[in-house]
Write a structure and sequence with these properties.
Length: about 350
């Protein structure tokens, strides 16, 4: 770390820029080969990458994030054909899911191959693997032609970055290069599915829903479970802003805001329905009523609100339906008082 200056590399489509992009990507690959850290965009959130075959490099990720060593990291590969190097006993269910959703926002938990380092798995017998579809991630992985270990590029427990500048804010002096790839399309982390045993389980909800997974597999699966904190995103407090955050049911929101006393102000309100209007007492940040668009902007808006010296961030509870599950899960973990005033 610290050998290269952090730099943002903008990936564009015209040919002169494309040549520069190749140079930047080659530099990123050189840094990875030398055991350095490269942050890169994926379609979900930005990742903090290191050569997955270099345990010393992977250890730097844990140091940079302040992440406990027993929390495993995901290995990103260019395509499913690389799976055989990283995993063994790949089930038919795993193959079906890889075929249906890769490249894309899905992480598969598989039995690790014997030579896979314990540093990646936190000592567990399983490994998380994913093929991202973001163009920059794809280009980087294809030139590197190997596995890149990458958790989200934030400090442990904080909101995942969905822009290159958010990565810079989180980790500026801890990373050798930041590849710029615009705002992430999905905006929340991948769906994690454990396919390491016969019982397929979703460990972390994401944009790919349980229903979509069941359709591909042609059977019912266990919904978000996991009794061990193998998924750091499954810890109760995670993905959190520093400002106190509360979720308030839609039908209680207006009264809740009106009852705030002056010493509880200013507050920021993250709302998706039109029930409250802008007010001198509080700032309203209007979110989309479409769960995909909401997810796309969620972390960016929370980051912005976190910088505003609000006493509290108040979030209007989102619907209970399945397409809101990933957003609901992240809001609950980000909130200091989740499930406050249930509807
Ligand atoms: O969308 C994503 O998944 C992003 C982008 C960068 O790919 N990555 C991401 O990584 O969110 P991270 O490390 O922040 O979250 C991945 C989660 C962690 O909570 C980790 O504990 C869990 O995956 N995980 C990794 N390997 C696992 C395993 N073998 N068993 C259970 N959970 C695992
Ligand atoms: Mg994370």
């Amino acid at each position: 770390m610290g050998k290269y200056k952090p730099c943002m590399a903008i990936i564009k489509n015209d040919s002169l820029a494309a040549m520069k992009n190749v140079e930047i990507l080659k530099k990123a690959v050189k840094i990875l080969h030398e055991g350095g850290l490269v942050a890169f965009p994926t379609e979900t959130v930005y990742g903090l990458g290191a050569d997955a075959k270099n345990p010393e490099a992977v250890r730097k990720i844990f140091l940079a994030k302040g992440r406990p060593a027993d929390h495993p990291v995901i290995v990103h590969i260019p395509e499913a054909s690389h799976l055989s190097f990283w995993a063994v006993d790949i089930s038919l269910d795993a193959k079906k899911l890889a075929q249906a959703f890769w490249p894309g926002p899905l992480t598969l938990i598989l039995k690790k191959a014997p030579e896979v380092s314990d540093v990646l798995t936190g000592g567990q017998e399983t490994l998380g693997v994913r093929v991202p579809r973001h163009l920059v991630a794809q280009a980087l992985l294809q030139i590197f032609n190997g596995g890149i270990a990458a958790p989200s590029a934030n400090r442990f427990g904080r909101i995942s970055p969905t822009t290159a500048s958010a990565v810079y804010e989180e980790l500026n002096d801890q990373v050798d290069l930041i590849l710029e790839g615009g705002q992430c399309e999905v905006g929340v982390e991948s769906t994690i599915v454990d396919v390491s045993s016969n019982e397929v389980r979703v460990l972390r909800p994401g944009m790919i829903t349980v229903k979509q997974i069941e359709t591909v597999l042609g059977k019912k699966i266990s919904d978000v479970g996991g009794n061990v904190p193998r998924v750091s995103g499954s810890l109760e407090s995670h993905y959190a802003p520093t400002t106190e955050m509360r979720i308030v049911a839609k039908n209680k929101l207006e009264d809740f805001l009106n009852e705030l006393s002056d010493d509880q102000l200013p507050v920021g309100v993250l709302a998706h329905s039109k029930i409250i209007s802008q007010n001198t007492k509080y700032d309203v940040v209007r979110m989309s009523e479409d769960p995909k668009l909401y997810a796309h902007d969620l972390y960016l808006r929370l980051r912005e609100m976190d910088k505003k010296n609000y006493r509290k961030i108040i979030v209007e509870a989102v619907p209970e339906s399945e397409e809101w599950e990933a957003v609901r899960d992240r809001l609950k973990r980000a909130a200091s008082f989740p499930e406050f005033l249930p509807s």
